[in-house]
Write a structure and sequence with these properties.
The chain is α+β, with helices and mostly antiparallel strands. It has two helices and eight strands. The longest helix has 14 residues. The protein is elongated and about 55 Å long. It starts with 7 loop residues before the first helix and ends with a strand. The relative contact order is 0.23.
């Protein structure tokens, strides 16, 4: 019987749980677009890729998994954006809890310098940081 094919969603849920457990407000795929929504003074936005199911043996069992998730750290000023980045880094410094899988600690791939977003009023500052996620069957 072939090994179950891994799924990105439980990994994304684990990242989101780690970040909310660290006291961060977290959105996935963007911020709310409803009228009247105003952003908090600091938050994180997750942008995951679908991941890759990787061969774990010559038998072509594709039970290993790797994915990249971008965590865009946002704040009303540079210091708040960097504060979010620090909280994210600490929250993702441990293995993720993904049911039925053994996870590596997320690998911090870094990101560009803090940038200012003048397309919103008032302007926000953001820094995207990427993490590589990896897991295998228990």
């Amino acid at each position: 019987m072939p090994a179950p094919v891994p799924d990105v969603l439980p990994h994304l849920d684990a990242v989101q749980a780690a970040l909310t457990g660290a006291g961060l407000t977290v959105y996935v795929g963007g911020t709310p677009t409803t009228s009247g929504w105003s952003p908090p003074d600091k938050f994180a936005v997750l942008y995951p890729d679908p991941g890759v199911s990787v061969r774990s043996s010559l038998a072509d069992d594709r039970s290993d998994f790797t994915a990249t998730v971008q965590v865009t750290c946002v704040g009303s000023d540079v210091e708040r954006a960097l504060w979010v980045a620090g909280r994210v880094r600490r929250a993702l410094a441990a293995e993720l809890a993904v049911e039925g899988r053994v996870s590596w600690r997320p690998e911090d791939l870094g990101g560009p310098p803090v940038q200012r977003d003048d397309d919103v009023t008032p302007p926000l500052f953001f820094v995207p940081v990427q993490y590589r996620l990896q897991s295998t069957l228990e």
